[in-house]
Specification:
Largest sheet: 2 strands, antiparallel
Number of strands: 2
Order of helices and strands: HHHHHHHHHHHHHHHHHEEH
Distance between the termini: 23 Å
Helix content: over 70%
Structural class: mainly alpha
Shape: globular
Mean pLDDT: 84
Radius of gyration: 20 Å
Low-confidence stretches: none
């Protein structure tokens, strides 16, 4: 039995590794690629909003997995479709066609975040989940190696900022799809049960909002992703403007720290409670934009060290804020809607919140950017000042209104 459990955990770990590798390799440098294509701020924001729009399909996919088909088969089909669409996207440069390909790819890909989480939580306990999810962070870090290998092996002048990362994402998607068919069987837990329109749309998890504390958690998590998305979506454009090379590799350093916090997040929740864990994640969000802001008022090596610090703190934010939030959601959700609950969480945070954040931050970049002699001049200090203030507001609201019923979590 023990060897079987180890084998299952290994398979789940590989699933997470592949799932986050395939998105990181092309999404991280996408903003820089769009800027190099000469797209306007509006065109960039529209294409970069595809992650948020794709997340809105998560509750529906969660409902399908809860009621009709085995989750591992749904995951395999979604990854296969993602691979095909990314391959087509790597061959087009028209803003319209690029948006169409990427938005369709994201409608297939983004539901897999909640789907892989629910698969892992079916076969492991909630307190073991972060130790499985850490392999996703390792996959994200590994994505940075694509650029290093491609530049050296094929003697390329540049990898990030081209269409090559999208092609790499397509290839990894197809490999992941094949592997998914060999995952542990995860049959639909509510198969045969009578469903409502809310079930079909995947919104049965809305009933969880009757729990006041969960509703507060969801609202403030939604608000937090608005400043969070500034770095997540436009970070490559910022680093490119700061003359960083190998942008994907640089940004993957944040996932190196994330790996550590994935391993210890369960212990942190158990020892400190969910409120303190989430609060530390929000404090890290404030610190990121504060050091970015400080970096814009220095230069040279000092500025770069501030920027690298802002990149590294990503691991604390994601591990203690969003992964801990997934664990909290799984704990609060009834068994028969666990996949829907994760999908609903993804819909609110990575769907609506991320969409608003992408559009708002895209507008902010346009507002504080001027073109002089065909060269874009960004006022990053003003933008980081705004995101710092927004992060502080969310942190204070969370500390005041979210209640930690159990000081010691029993996950």
């Amino acid at each position: 039995m023990e060897s079987k459990s180890i084998r299952v955990n290994m398979n789940l770990g590989v699933m997470m590794f592949m799932q986050y590798l395939l998105i990181a390799v092309w999404w991280v440098p996408l903003a820089a690629y769009l800027a190099n294509l000469g797209m306007s701020t509006g065109q960039k924001s529209l294409i970069l909003s595809s992650m948020a729009l794709g997340s809105m399909a998560s509750p529906i996919i969660g409902s399908i997995a809860d009621r009709h088909f085995s989750s591992e088969k749904v995951l395999a089909i979604l990854n296969m479709l993602t691979g095909v669409l990314l391959f087509i996207a790597s061959t087009v440069v028209s803003p319209t066609w690029l948006f169409v390909c990427i938005i369709l790819a994201m409608f297939c890909y983004m539901p897999t975040w909640s789907l892989t989480s629910s698969i892992a939580m079916v076969h492991t306990s909630a307190n073991q989940f972060p130790r499985i999810r850490v392999f996703g962070s390792i996959g994200w870090v590994a994505s940075g190696l694509f650029g290093l290998i491609a530049v050296r092996l094929f003697h390329l002048e540049k990898f990030d900022g081209t269409s090559l990362p999208i092609l790499c994402g397509a290839i990894v998607s197809m490999i992941a799809a094949i592997f998914n068919f060999f995952l542990p069987k995860t049959p639909p837990p509510a198969k045969g049960q009578k469903g409502t329109i809310m079930d079909t749309l995947g919104f049965n998890a809305i009933s969880m909002l009757k729990q006041k504390n969960f509703a507060i958690f969801l609202l403030l998590s939604f608000l937090s992703v608005i400043p969070f998305s500034f770095y997540h979506v436009y970070g490559s454009e910022f680093l490119q403007d700061q003359k960083f090379e190998l942008i994907t590799f640089t940004m993957s350093l944040g996932q190196v720290v994330e790996i550590f916090f994935m391993i210890v997040v369960t212990s942190i929740i158990v020892r400190l409670g969910i409120k303190k864990a989430l609060t530390f994640g929000l404090i890290a969000l404030v610190v990121r934009y504060l050091v970015f802001f400080t970096g814009t008022h220095t230069s040279g090596f000092s500025a770069n060290m501030f920027y690298i610090s802002g990149v590294l703190v990503h691991g604390i934010i994601f591990g203690l804020l969003y992964v801990a939030g997934q664990v909290y959601t799984d704990k609060m959700a009834p068994n028969e809607i666990r996949a829907q609950a994760q999908g609903f969480l993804a819909f609110v945070i990575w769907g609506i919140g991320f969409l608003i954040g992408t559009i708002f931050n895209g507008w902010m970049i346009g507002r504080f950017t001027t073109t002089i002699n065909e060269i874009k001049v960004y006022q990053w200090d003003k933008m980081f000042a705004i995101t710092t203030v927004l992060s502080i507001i969310v942190m204070v609201l969370f500390i005041v209104f979210f209640k930690d019923e159990n000081k010691k979590s029993t996950i």
